[in-house]
């Protein structure tokens, strides 16, 4: 529907501890969801948890609890982290919820009735950690090609989905829609996989019992991917919500995922939807992985970065900024505390913090905290205004492309231009000459107006900082970029508070 926007994270597996990778995906979605909201869109932002499967069943058994008890214990960790990270999701789907089970079983029955699901026998090499079957040719020295762990040969009765039937249709869709899979390198990866030929897909198991039962054959449970992927429509009310959220928001504008689950989202999910006669998502965007100090995150190396600890140590907005600024979205990145501290000190404390504190302090000192009216403009003023307008247009384009680091870089170009404007116009010198009072007032107005625009632009990335800037400038908390993004809307005579440091410098040990 026009003016609606639907964005999703993958649903996170409950047999895992929330880490920086989960935070990265969710913060990217939150920033884009917030940005679209301030641009006037009706946004549906979905996240949630994947709670079925053999791994959960085994972990619960080893822990002396039921799988649902394990899920009920772990889910609040994710929800608490999103709250701590200032994430404003619209809904939180759990695959153990009745609304989800109902939608999954409905899709299964539809596909079975039309002949796209059939009963057969499956035999192949199974990786339990990845919950994936592999052919012998896929294995590397008998181990899973994704995680490198041993696989086991399994044979069991299984329901199959006729994925091969939809190979040509999927291929045509990918080729006709260049933006369907992003970034381009991932698109090429999927195209090569599909061109090699799609096999029919095993979508049920009898070797464990924790999952959604196959309707009419309850010794089978639905395989995790047929179950989990359907969350994107069951959360919207599928199959019942023909006039509500499903009609309003589907197809999704973008599924944001990690590159490790690209095949499931760009091959399995689209073929399920094609079979069900439903529109495909407009975009699947697969981002990269984070290493830590150059090494892959792993429990055995004890280098898993825990987001709660980062927030407590550095503050939520600093973490949000660093994760989305440091690395082009789509590429792999490396996390280090020294890089984070450098970003805080240079970008946040020096560039943004100094701009706000210097400018508001001078309004306080020279104009008793009352914003002066601008007078005749000079070439320097016009240049600053043009930078603001041009870079704000660039932010819009970069956000549509999920190029978060470029969007932030564009905002920081405005901040840098404003800091240069201070240095070149030297308000402290103008203040010494009574004849330059009008010019001083123009300089101060332009600086505070630039800060207003910067505050509105950074709010989707750093909500608390955006709110602080609004308070400092006496703006309404509800003021949005959509109706306030043009130059010159800050009213002369407004009370401007002298700002404390927004981001105190961190001294390296």
Structure commentary:
The protein contains 19 helices and 17 strands. With about 500 residues, it is α/β, with parallel strands linked by helices. The chain has a domain of about 150 residues: Isoleucyl-tRNA Synthetase, Domain 1 (Orthogonal Bundle). The strands form four sheets. Strands 1, 2, 3, 4, 8, 13 and 14 form a seven-stranded parallel beta sheet that branches. Helix 13 runs antiparallel to helix 17, helix 14 runs antiparallel to helix 15 and helix 14 packs parallel to helix 17.
Summarize the SSE layout with pairings.
Layout: E1 4-8, E2 12-13, H1 20-38, E3 42-50, H2 54-62, H3 67-84, E4 91-94, H4 98-113, E5 117-127, E6 132-134, E7 152-161, H5 167-176, E8 181-182, H6 184-195, E9 201-202, E10 204-205, E11 213-214, E12 217-222, H7 224-229, H8 231-234, H9 245-249, E13 254-258, H10 262-276, E14 284-287, E15 290-292, E16 295-296, H11 307-314, H12 316-325, E17 333-335, H13 337-367, H14 379-400, H15 404-425, H16 427-430, H17 437-458, H18 463-473, H19 481-484
Parallel strand pairs: 1-3, 1-13, 2-3, 3-4, 8-14, 13-14, 15-17
Antiparallel strand pairs: 5-6, 5-7, 7-9, 10-12, 11-12, 15-16
What is the first-to-last residue Cα distance?
53 Å
Count of extended strands:
17
- Please identify the oligomeric state: single chain
CATH class type of the domain at 337-484: Mainly Alpha
- Spans where pLDDT lies below 50 across 5 or more residues: none
The geometry reads as elongated
Q: DSSP helix count?
A: 19
CA-atom Rg in angstroms: 26 Å
The class by helix and strand makeup works out as alpha/beta
- Per CATH, what is the topology of the domain at 337-484? Isoleucyl-tRNA Synthetase, Domain 1
């Amino acid at each position: 529907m026009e003016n609606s926007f639907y964005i999703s994270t993958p649903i996170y597996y409950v047999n895992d501890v929330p880490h920086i990778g989960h935070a990265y995906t969710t913060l990217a979605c939150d920033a884009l969801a917030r940005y679209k909201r301030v641009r006037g869109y009706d946004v549906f932002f979905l996240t949630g948890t994947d709670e079925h499967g053999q791994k959960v069943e085994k972990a619960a058994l080893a822990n002396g609890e039921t799988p649902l008890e394990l899920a009920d214990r772990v889910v609040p960790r994710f929800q608490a982290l999103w709250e701590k990270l200032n994430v404003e999701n619209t809904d939180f789907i759990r695959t153990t919820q009745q609304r989800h089970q109902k939608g999954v079983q409905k899709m299964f029955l539809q596909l079975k009735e039309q002949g796209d699901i059939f009963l057969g026998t499956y035999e192949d090499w199974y990786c339990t950690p990845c919950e994936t079957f592999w052919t012998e040719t896929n294995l590397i020295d008998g181990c899973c090609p994704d995680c490198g762990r041993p696989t086991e040969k399994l044979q069991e009765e299984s329901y199959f989905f006729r994925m091969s039937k939809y190979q040509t249709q999927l291929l045509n869709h990918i080729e006709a829609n260049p933006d369907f899979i992003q970034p381009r390198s991932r698109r090429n990866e999927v195209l090569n996989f599909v061109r090699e030929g799609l096999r029919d897909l095993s979508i049920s198991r009898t070797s464990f019992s924790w999952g959604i039962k196959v309707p009419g054959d309850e010794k089978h449970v639905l395989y995790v991917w047929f179950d989990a992927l359907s969350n994107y429509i069951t959360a919207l009310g599928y199959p019942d919500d023909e006039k509500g959220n499903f009609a309003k928001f589907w197809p999704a504008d973008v599924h944001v995922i990690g590159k490790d689950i690209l095949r499931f989202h760009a091959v399995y999910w689209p073929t399920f939807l094609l079979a069900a006669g439903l529109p495909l998502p407009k975009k699947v965007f697969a981002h990269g992985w984070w290493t830590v100090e150059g090494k892959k995150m792993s429990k055995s190396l004890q280098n898993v970065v825990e987001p709660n600890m980062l927030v407590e140590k550095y503050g939520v907005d600093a973490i949000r900024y660093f994760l989305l600024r440091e690395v082009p979205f789509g590429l792999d990145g490396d996390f280090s505390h020294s890089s984070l501290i450098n970003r805080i000190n240079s970008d946040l404390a020096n560039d943004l913090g100094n701009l706000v504190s210097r400018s508001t302090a001078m309004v306080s000192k020279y104009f008793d905290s009352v914003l002066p009216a601008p007078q005749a403009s000079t070439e320097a003023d016009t240049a600053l205004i043009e930078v603001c307008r041009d870079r704000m247009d660039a932010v819009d384009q970069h956000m549509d492309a999920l190029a978060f680091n470029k969007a932030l870089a564009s905002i920081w170009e405005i901040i840098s231009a404003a800091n240069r404007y201070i240095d070149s116009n030297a308000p402290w010198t103008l203040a010494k000459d009574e004849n330059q009072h009008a010019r001083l007032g123009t300089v101060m107005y332009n600086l505070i107006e630039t800060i207003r625009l910067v505050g509105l632009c950074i709010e989707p990335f750093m909500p608390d900082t955006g709110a602080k800037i609004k308070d400092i400038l006496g703006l309404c908390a509800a003021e949005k970029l959509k109706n306030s993004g043009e130059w010159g809307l800050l009213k002369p005579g407004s009370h401007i508070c002298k700002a404390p440091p927004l981001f105190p410098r961190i001294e390296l040990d």
